[in-house]
Structures are given as C-alpha cells and as structure tokens.
Amino acid sequence: MAEVHPPLALTMGDPAGIGPEITAGAWQAMRTGPARFAVIGDAGLIGRHGVPVREIGTIGETPEVFAHAVPVLPVALATTVLPGQPDSRNADAITTSIARAVELARNGQAGAVVTNPISKIVLKKAGFAYPGHTEYLAALCNVPGREVMMLACPELRVVPVTIHVSLRRALDELTTDGIIAATRTTHAALVRDFGIAAPRIAMAGLNPHAGESGSMGTEEQTIIMPAMETLRAEGMDITGPWPPDTMFTPPARARYDVAMCMYHDQALIPLKTIDMTQGVNTTLGLPIIRTSPDHGTAFDIAGRGVADPASLVAALHMAARMAEHRNPT
C-alpha cells in the first residue's frame, strides 16, 4: 500500500465503550505501516491502554508523530469516563469529534474519516436527532437522503436499501426509486473507490424464494424487477432477484461484487456471520470517504483489555485503499 496523504481522521466514538482500547490496539498494529491516523478525542483515555500518546495542534503533524505515539487532536470531555458506564453528558464531545473529522476530510486535510462506535441510545438521551452515524454524516456533508450504507469483508459486500427502521416500516419504505438510487450510488462507488471497472451486482429478493413467481409475495415483480430493468438499461450488470436464503453461499458469492439487499438484517446477518472480525461499515454517497468497524460500543467488555481491534484495523486499511483509488498519486 502506498503512503496515504493526508492522514486519516479517527473519531473517538463513545468514550465509555471499547473505542479507546481498540484505537490503542490499532496504532500498535499499524505504527510501522504507511497508513497513518490521528484521533480526535481524549488523549488520556487512549493512554490508559499502555501506548504513548501525544497531543497535536493540527492533523498535519501526524506523519512525524505516528511512528512514536498516537497523535491526538484534543476534544474536552464534560465528565469523567468510567469504562462500561456511558454518560450522555459526554454526548457533545462525541458529536464534536465526528463533526471535526468530517470538516478535516471536506477541506482536504484528512484523507478519510474512520469512526469508532457510538451508542445511539446515549446520544438520543442528549437530544441527538439522527437515527445513527450514517444519517448524521450525510447531514454534516449537506447530502441528507443520499447516504448508502455498505458492509464489506474480504468475502462479501452488502448494501441494505432500507437501513435504520423497523422491519414493518422497511417494507413500507421499499420502493423502485429507492432501489435505483441506492444501486446507482453503489455502482459509482465500486468504480471510483474500489477500482472495480465493471461491478457485478446481485439483487436480493424480498420474500422467501424471491416470491416464487408471486405465490409468496409480489414485491419482486412490482418493485424490484422494474428497478433492475432501469439499471440494466443504464448498462449495469444486474442479476436477480436472488432467493435470499441461497445467495450468500460461497459459490453464489463468487458470481457478484456486491449484494443489494432490501432491509437491514437481510444484509448484515450474512456479513457478520461470514466475517465479523474483518467487517467494515462504509458510507457511500458522501463527498468524503467514511469507514467504521462493523461492531458496536461493547460496553459489557469495555476496560477489560479483551477487545479485538481487528475490525477497526480493517476499517482504517479500507479507508486508506479507498483514498488511493479516489485520489491516485
């Protein structure tokens, strides 16, 4: 991997979760490599995990610091952090970290944003108005409604067309136009940010057996297939609708580059089952690159020294690769 410049901006996530610990672990795993990052958060929390930390004034100082210490752009916390005990009084610091990372990426000082896990419940108690990270990032980038969530591991990429809503609401919100918009964004990102010249896209059915010719549901015929016809007319390689219960087997996965899924769990269950350790969440449709580990805050193990940084390391490396594809030197 070529050296990534500018550095990556890593948010602190919820300070009471495993974010500080996996950040320390990620730095230990990556300190001698070309991909460098600066953390926007509290230096003391990271230093608790046995790594050297240095506060910096600008993200541009990252390259000279990274090999020796974790570079940190400081964000003040409102109250003391106890691992595993989230406190909504620190919500402003959490969202400030995200907003600063986005600003750095948008003005070109950061090559990408990588986000540590947040707790939606903790933020909601403090008045956070967004369903999750994805929607907040879209608002910060002034492209609300254009965000698309993709989960990726070495064996699979998946995109849920509907995201952070109940299953009942997802069925109501699934539309032909929504499938078309999400697939267009995904196709463009695979070309631009992943270097796939002609992406192969598999479209999942909604119903068991993809509706079984209408006997188990008609959404495939009335909603999904019209979207596929439009996308094929635009020159995209689209197959399906695939029966959801068979499209994630190894032979099936070898036939496509991404699976477009109709709702959240249809996409995330197979991805996390196949490889949660290397799973990465990336937001498509933004003017910046954003990735994240595909797990949560893990308050139950925070502070115990057992958190695995592998997914964060994978997210950092994916962000670096995407930045190289988007801005080749």
Average pLDDT, all residues: 94
> What CATH architecture label of the largest domain applies?
3-Layer(aba) Sandwich
Query: How much is the radius of gyration in Å?
Result: 20 Å
At CATH level 3, the topology of the largest domain is Isopropylmalate Dehydrogenase
Proportion of β residues? 15-25%
Number of helices: 12
Helical proportion, percent range: 25-40%
Uncertain segments are none
Structural class: alpha/beta
Globular, elongated, flat, extended or rod-shaped: what is the shape? globular
Largest sheet: 12 strands, mixed
SSE pattern: EHEHEHEHEHHEEHHEHEHEHEEH
Tally of strands: 12
User: Into how many domains do the coordinates divide?
Assistant: 2
Strand order of the largest sheet: 3-4-2-1-5-12-11-6-7-10-8-9
CATH superfamily of the largest domain: Isopropylmalate Dehydrogenase
CATH class call of the largest domain: Alpha Beta
Question: What distance separates the N and C termini?
Answer: 12 Å
Describe the structure.
By secondary structure, this protein is α/β, with parallel strands linked by helices. It folds into 2 domains: 1-147 and 286-329, 3-Layer(aba) Sandwich (Isopropylmalate Dehydrogenase); 148-283, Isopropylmalate Dehydrogenase. Helix content is 38%, strand content 17%. It has helices at residues 19-30, 43-47, 62-65, 91-106, 120-125, 133-140, 167-173, 176-194, 219-233, 250-253, 264-275, 310-326, and strands at residues 8-11, 37-41, 53-55, 70-74, 112-114, 148-153, 156-160, 200-204, 237-242, 258-261, 280-284, 290-293. A 12-stranded mixed β-sheet has the order 3-4-2-1-5-12-11-6-7-10-8-9, with helices on both faces. β11 (280-284) and β12 form a beta hairpin. α8 packs across α9 (219-233). The two termini are 12 Å apart.
